[in-house]
Amino acid sequence: MRIDHGLLPGHVLQRTPHGARVTVTGICTASGPVTASVRAGAKVLPKLKAVRVGRAGDGRFTATLSGVPVGGPYTVELSCGAEQVEVGEIFVGDLWLMAGQSNMEGVGDMAGAPEPHPLVRCFTMGRYWEEARDPLHLLGESPDRAHGGTGLDRAAARRAKRNAVKGVGVGVHFGRLMQARSGVPQGLISTAHGGTSMAQWDPALKEQGGDSLYGSMTLSLQAVGQPLAGVLWYQGCSDTQPAAMAVYTKRMQELVAAVRRDCGQPRLPWAVVQIGRVVNGTNDAAVWNAIQEQQRRLPESIPALDVVPSADLELDDLIHISSRSFPALAERLARVAARLTLGDRSEKPAPQPRSVRLLPSQPGKPLRLEVRVANAVGGLASPVRPLGFSVIDQRGRARPVVFRTELAGDRVLLHLTESDIDGHRVGYGLGTDPACTVCDQRGMALPVFGPLAIEGVAAEPLPISDWFLRWRVSPILPGEDIARLPRPGGDEPGTCERSYTPDFVNNHDWWPGNSGHVAFTTTVELAEAGEVEVRTGYDGPFRLWVGASEIHRDLKGTNPAIKDTHRLRVRLPAGRHPVSVLLALNRGMAWGFFLRMAAAIGRSAPKPWV
């Protein structure tokens, strides 16, 4: 007897609740029933002793062995009449397909290679099983032209692997972690190839066999002949051109659907790595980030798929993850895999931004944006000052307006130096070589995201008035308590016209050492009726009227005055409307206030009196 398909020395079979199942075919000159026995060492497993599993005839045999328990190594003996064949080192556990490009292939420095584990096995690109030891991928031993087609023999492959200076990847680390979590053997199927694009992984090329990446991967899966526990995928760097970026999500949807269909597993789990950093200055950052954003959002359209981040990890060259960082990436993949394949509900998906919004203003405080994060297990943290967040203007440029990033549980508070953020968005890890430092307490990093729209901020710049800088101003009037005073009319004794520059009604030279309050009046003109957003900031007790209506009162106002801290909505008819302010001097500590108005998109900006 000779086996030609189904069982190879060192084979890992995929476990099921009823044990592993494998169909074996081969050559046999005898005819009649085929029996099987499975041994663990010298001991035959009681339920798998000389069991009838198939039949031989016409020079061929087919046998299906079922119920092989988790564990190993086992020896499987098949017999038909006087003929028999043995295959040793058979394991039953979980099988993982490794696919994608170089950061799944593994190009980390071999100086950081992990120790192998006897229960973590690798199905090589030469399509034989061995103990999993970096480098797991050796393109030269593949028989397929898609990988170079040189087909090194095992002796040459062993020498090449032994002499490699690059080749550490995530696989061995992942296998060790999953073996520890599950207690069962792990099998890694190597099919990744550096520098490859989604077009090269197109399932439509399957019929090309070993001349295409998808076809070569299919041949490896057919040689293994087993269902899978899941797929590990890292790819996307080669699709960071505008045309490829535009169809990336569609191609991923098609790829996942095709692999699931070809494996007969409609919910086969996928653990995807969001592409990380590149340090060469030639890649288009917007396109690079667009691929990352599409990857982040893949779980929205593909069930049983999760994405883990990598942009915070160290590199061993301009683009390849460092051998020192692969343990962290493996831990993230293992957490995802444990949830998707082992049903470990204690594991949450990777963190995701839930919302970005403008927080209500606080007297004397700068504008703040709040980013809420889902799945931030234990809360967010950073080993150093939190880095990675940026505010992006309508032209796609990062503006240096975040002076403080505060982590508070599942929230990130961005304190801004400026308040003019209409049309702005928020992102994390943007650019091709960002500094990203935020993780949750389990070490799962925040993914690159955005830029995302900000709730409470206009999606594009609003028509906005000039600053209100020409006023009729009263002299200092007695009393700091302005709570019960009437609306100023602009005719208070001693009132005169004053003009200010460039954007602040600044009375610092006039008020120090004095107490009391001052009345200000001016006019705003609207070309058409509608809602107006009044934006103000001040540094003393403050009241504001538009027309006859008081729209804002803050009797505890104090330093500093910050532009646009308060945004107040008021609906006004077309025409001219008086604007009135009372500001207490706060015992000489107040300086003044900012004021301007914005209209809705498509309408004319309000005009201050000039």
In short:
The chain is an alpha+beta fold.
Please explain how this structure is put together.
There is one protein chain. The chain has 610 residues and is of the alpha+beta class. It folds into four domains: 2-92, Immunoglobulin-like, CATH 2.60.40; 97-195 and 210-226 and 244-341, SGNH hydrolase (Rossmann fold); 352-453, Immunoglobulin-like (Sandwich); 470-608, Sandwich (Jelly Rolls). Helix content is 14%, strand content 35%. It has eight helices and 38 strands. It has a 15-stranded mixed sheet that branches. Strands 28, 29, 31, 33, 34, 36 and 38 form a seven-stranded antiparallel sheet that branches. A hairpin with a 5-residue loop joins strand 11 and strand 12 (129-131). The longest helix has 16 residues, at 248-263. The model has no long low-confidence stretch (mean pLDDT 96).
Overall form: elongated
Based on helices, strands and strand pairing, what is the structural class?
A: alpha+beta
Number of strands: 38
What is the CATH C-level name of the largest domain? Alpha Beta
Low-pLDDT runs of 5+ residues are none
Largest sheet: 15 strands, mixed
Question: What is the chains' assembly state?
Answer: single chain
CATH topology name of the largest domain, in short, is Rossmann fold
What number is the mean pLDDT?
Answer: 96
